[in-house]
Amino acid sequence: MKRKYMIIVLMAGALELTGCSQGTSNSAKNGTTGSENTIISESDIAILDTEDMFTERDRDTEYDESECTAISLSDEETKCDSDGVKMDGQTVTITEGGTYLLTGSLSNGSVVVDTDKTEKVQLILENVSIINEEGAGICVEQADKVFITLADGSTNKIVSNSFTGNEDTNIDGAIFSREDLTLNGSGTLKITSAAHGIVSKDDLVLTGGVYQIQSEKQGLSGKESVRIADGTFTITSGTDAIHSEDTDEDTKGFVYITGGVLTLAAGGDGISSSYVVQADGGSFDISTSSTETDTSTKGIKAQKYVILKDGTYQLATADDGIHCNGNVYVCGGTYSINSGDDGIHADDQTVVLDGKIDITNCYEGIEGQSVTIQDGTIKIVSSDDGLNAAGGNDQSSMGRPGENTFQEDSDAYIDILGGTIEIDAKGDGIDSNGDFSVSGGVIYVSGPGDDGNGALDYDGTATITGGTVVAAGMSGMAQNFGSDSTQGQRLAERARRKQKELRGHRAHVHEIRGADRCGQRQPHLLPRRPCRGCARNARGDRIPRGAHHQQQHGASGRLLQGPRHGSVQRRRIRGVLMRIGIDLGGTSVKARNTEILCMLFSYNTQDSIGKRFPQPFL
User: Fold this and answer.
1) N or C: which end of the chain has fewer CB within 10 A?
2) What pTM did the predictor assign?
3) DSSP 45
4) What is the pLDDT of residues 191-202, one digit of tens each?
């Protein structure tokens, strides 16, 4: 049986005809955003006021031991000379503001802070061990604010084995506070909890220290916010590792992180917020898993905004790597994502301003009602779509992933202004349920090996005004850019009977541009599976009506699509803008009646008259 294969190569490069370029930029300089977007900067997404996020007192770990009130914890008799400290068996209650230096241990007790609402209390833990068989090890009932400082070189332990008798008080953390709570210092705190690890019913702030938390529920929980300036965190949690949720105020319930090293293994979400998750820096190693199919197991999740400005992220998640019911903004940082569902998902906008993103495994790579990419280096390996503008909510959790069928949506679009994007997709390489536009950047798509998907798939319009796009896929759903594009493109099909299937073949694409005329070879594409269909686009290339299509190697072929610009000079250029070759590279060869063939194009172009182009390297 004769089978047709198609390489779709959409190629848009800078066809500069004056001088030799020394390279290309991935930025969106002088670019346009198409009809959908304007260029976005970090200042446009300043949702949180971060100027006073951490006070001087939050960061201050200095203390004068001679001015502290000493509390020596003991099962037999806790000792303290202050009238502001009350003892009742193994329950120690602090009733006055001040700075307290705690040492010693309690085998079944707790330290309680219950002062006037205007008082501030600082607890310095110096090799403290508190075990409570029923309730919190440290409990703040009332104060203005409480600071827990981990003394330098100290190792401290808090264990809460049960909370079954605390239903009326709602105490559910090994360290529990009804007020603002700050933890700082350079010592170590180890927490084991039958419920949450550290809880604040107001703001939870951490500016330093080493934390090892094992909790059956959440690791860190702050109702109004969780704020992390620095520290080393190793959290193993039964539900969310870090969680902030405030149902009373719309602008509270956020997580803000500027630094630190966080290793999170969660039975729910790694980081979860009812408002905003913003990370300006830090090192994140997040893994999620659950045996419950209705449990959310996303890496980083927020209801309204996820804003990632910098940092290093290693995400291995059962559900989405990064997820927001509103907008996701990736402004910088380095990301390695292995996801059981989407790599990055937003119900509304997904915007990539910069960063290095490597999505090694996912269902869909980057998804949103709209997807805008301004710069960065992005690699995606997906079992379905690489980029997807879906135009609707993704309600998947564990069962699909991704079983929703999205309909055409006029608000959905994909807009690429710059960056370098490499996509290996078994579904659609780039799929927009609305419009698709490219005005800059370098894009490679190794598309699907079946006719049910395409390297490019859009329901609205597709335009290209700049950049380089190379896409390889099957011809069954092949689409090209539309007639409104200001750059020419080619969509062509090749077929030949051959008793082989080539796997791991490399399709080389050579641009004729300034750099190429200096002897440089520019882009190349390695399709990951047998494919058919080829289109290319070259920036500045005006392809006139009746452009010539040359066939070689005895193969059959046809020009499927290309823009028609009739008001141009017609002159044939004997040469090519690109060539597609085969390089097995020692990979496997299996019997099948198909083969991808070399192709050569020759066509008219407005800007090429009087110029000398090199012959293709075959």
Assistant:
1) N
2) 0.81
3) G
4) 999 999 999 999
